[in-house]
Amino acid sequence: MTASDLPPRHDVELGTAALRVLAHPLRLTVLALLRERGPATATHVADELGINPGAASYHLRRLAAGGLIEEEPDRGTGRERWWRSVHRQSVHDPATATAEQCDTGRAYTQAVAEVAADRLHRAAREVPLLPEDWLRATAYGDFLLRLTPEDTSRMRDEIFEVITRYRDRSGGVPEGTSPVFVQVQAFPAPGTALPPDAGA
């Protein structure tokens, strides 16, 4: 079972400790891998991501310490530990976070943006190989809008409602599905919203 098969109650609101654990792009990538592909060992993670097995094991232990993954019961041996994601999705909303969570959340948000950019880069390399039906269905949009922070929050919430409707649809998984990443990015055009002394 992958994390996407878990029901909505398995979403987790990230606290300060979990935000600190996930304020690292590689850990976010490891967690996403477990959620997308299902349980894996440090060796599997290392092979998939092209990193040292020792580094993979370290990051898996950090994720476990943060309560984000756990050992797969009744699987593996003393030398080979299988890990699985505990939650379907991690949630961090700066609008409802404490001051401490907001500070830690900045590093987490930066890591999320870096991972999303890397995933988009890898997807771009596969565009020439996509089957025609998937090529017609994909979307790579880039829209420049003039919005207030309130407008942006409202638009984000409306988009999330649509995503939730497709994610939580009843009736099981239709035939012909494939894991699809829907990336939502809404941010001020670089250099336009920083306070006057931010570059000093």
Low-confidence runs (pLDDT<50, min 5 residues)?
none
- What's the CATH class label of the domain at 1-138? Mainly Alpha
Structural class, by secondary structure, is mainly alpha
Strand elements, count: 5
Fraction of helical residues: 40-55%
**Major sheet characteristics:** 3 strands, antiparallel
Architecture (CATH level 2) name of the domain at 1-138: Orthogonal Bundle
Fold-level CATH name of the domain at 1-138? Arc Repressor Mutant, subunit A
Shape: globular
State the CATH superfamily name of the domain at 1-138: Winged helix-like DNA-binding domain superfamily/Winged helix DNA-binding domain
Number of helices: 7
Terminal Cα separation, in Å?
Answer: 50 Å
**Strand proportion:** 5-15%
Mean pLDDT level: 89
Strand order of the main beta sheet, please? 2-4-3
Could you state the order of secondary-structure elements as H and E?
EHHEHHEEEHHH
Characteristics:
7 helices; 200 residues; Arc Repressor Mutant, subunit A; 3-stranded antiparallel beta sheet; two-stranded parallel ribbon; mainly alpha
